[in-house]
Every structure is written in structure tokens, then in C-alpha cells.
Amino acid sequence: MNPNGDTRSQVISTYHDHPRFICATCSAVLALQDELISKSFSGREGRGFLMHSATNVKLGKKEDRPLLTGVHTVADIFCMGCNDRVGWYYHKAADLSQKYKEGKYLLEREKMVKENNWKLDE
């Protein structure tokens, strides 16, 4: 898929009334907060969050990348709303101790906003 293609019309609005992470640039929903596995990861631009799933993202090209915990096969992920790179997807981990990351998403903390959707008494 071309990460530079216009995909704004494909953004799904979902997860109403659920705490979620949204894109800091365009406010597209990227993930439910319930999908968070760990906040103690490192992304390209600082802190990263490991997530079970993500939405409104498209995969870039698959590549082998040396990361802090060894070489992983990953693909950058891009927001469907604004095409910003928001993290990466773990396809494969070479080291046995890192296999738990396979099929998971790393979302860059700086690229998203936590939205709690609190209900206020009127």
C-alpha cells in the first residue's frame, strides 16, 4: 500500500464512549486504551506503547530493523487520516525471548493523545 496515498475517506469513527488513543495531528482513533500491553518501550522519537491492536493505520514496507532488543522484521505504520508515521508493526522477532511482540503494534507516544471520554454529571 502506498503510504502517501490519500486515505482520509477510509478513516473509521468508532469506539464511542471508550477511552482511546487518537492521532495527535488529525484526531483519528488509533487504539483503545484497553489494548495497551506496555508503556516501557522505545520508539524512534522517545517513549513507545506496545499495543495488542491498532485501527485507522496502514502498513508500510516490511523490513529487518535493528532495535534495542535485537533485529526484528517490522513495517512502519501510518495514520489513515493524515499519513503521519505513528509507529510500527512487529511481523517477526529473531530472538525467542522477543516472540511475544509478533503481531503487535508499537505506537509512538509523541504521535498520539490520550482521550478519556469522561462522563460529567449535568
TrEMBL record:
Keyword vocabulary terms for this entry: Metal-binding, Zinc
GO molecular function: metal ion binding
InterPro entries assigned: Yippee (IPR034751), Yippee/Mis18/Cereblon (IPR004910), Yippee_fam (IPR039058)
Domain of life: Eukaryota
Residue stretches making up the Yippee domain: 19-116
Family to which the UniProt record says this protein belongs: Belongs to the yippee family.
Identification of the protein by name: Protein yippee-like
Organism (species): Suillus luteus UH-Slu-Lm8-n1
Phylogenetic placement of the source organism: Eukaryota, Fungi, Dikarya, Basidiomycota, Agaricomycotina
